[in-house]
Amino acid sequence: MSKSISAAVLVALVMSLSASGQDVKVIGSGSGSKPKSQVAVKPKGYDRLGTADYECIYAYDVVATKKNGEKADERYATILQFSPSLAKFTDMSSFLTDSVASQSGINVNMTDLNEKYGRGEFFFTGEVYQNSPEGKTTYIDVITPNTVKYEEDFAPFGWSLEEDTLTVCGYPCMKATCEYGGRQWTAWFTEEIPASFGPWKFSGLPGLILKVADSEGVHTFTATAFRKASDEIVRVQNSEVQSTSREKFIKNKAYFEEKPMERIPVESIRDITVFKGGAIMVNGVRLPKRTNGYTPIELE
């Protein structure tokens, strides 16, 4: 296959091969190999960072703006796991997949898990590790076909406490505001849960953050359930993850998401897998589905 073929055409070809309802994997797409049907999903390895004492489930609501200017509501299911010393925030489907796959001694069908992992359209692709390593927040995300990460100081928000209260998820909350990533944010935290964590990267208040929203109402995280836990906090082992800076990530992520299929360098493609449920992975990295386009949480 010629390298001059676009990534979009190549993905479309693989999707046409999967029309029979079978999982299809094309191997060596960037090196001239011909496509062939094959299912070959490499099992993941995991680093165990600690055990979560609690979990908080958040509805993550996004008001997207389509190219024609119309507004569209999106809702993501996300979860925060935390102990006294660290926290992990991720998509609920990813959490469930990793919780099963990371258990030793269990026979796991990784093909089924990867299909479920990529089936949903509204899937939060990032993973946020708060105070891991100590004093830092680590953010891991995909810019297909690469997985990238960056670190920044833990809790860099400069919160201002305000005289207002709100009940969220059954807990009395206090109000705090800050400016971060080009947006103004309002957070509601409860001192009844003395944990300095929250959804996404939000942290650094004297209680768990149960709700946070930007001033324009584009991004809103709202706790819907809080519970005790005993699950491990795990991180996928990935020797190919690329380190970058926060500034470069924001710029490159926005550029890629504008035209994702067109902006995958075809010479970088080793393989493409299309699962019968519709999930697409390039070099084992998920290709996000975004019917309504990309609505970045950070503008700068």
Radius of gyration, CA atoms, in whole angstroms: 20 Å
What is the overall number of helices? 4
Question: What's the SSE pattern?
Answer: HEEEEEHHEEEEEEEEEEHEEE
The main β sheet shows up as: 12 strands, mixed
- pLDDT < 50 runs, ≥5 residues: 29-43
Could you give the distance between the termini?
Answer: 39 Å
Describe the protein.
It is built from four helices and 18 strands. By secondary structure, the chain is mostly beta strands. Strands 9-10-11-12-13-3-4-5-6-7-8-15 form a twelve-stranded mixed beta sheet. It has a four-stranded antiparallel beta sheet with strand order 1-16-17-18, covered by helices on one side. The two termini are 39 Å apart. Residues 29-43 have low confidence and may be disordered.
Which terms summarize this structure?
4 helices; mainly beta; 300 residues; globular
Question: Could you outline the blueprint of secondary structure elements for this entry?
Answer:
Elements: H1 7-17, E1 24-27, E2 46-51, E3 54-65, E4 71-82, E5 87-91, H2 92-101, H3 110-119, E6 127-130, E7 136-143, E8 146-153, E9 160-168, E10 171-180, E11 183-190, E12 208-214, E13 219-228, E14 232-236, E15 242-243, H4 246-258, E16 271-274, E17 280-282, E18 285-286
Parallel strand pairs: 8-15
Antiparallel strand pairs: 1-16, 2-14, 3-4, 3-13, 4-5, 5-6, 6-7, 7-8, 9-10, 10-11, 11-12, 12-13, 16-17, 17-18
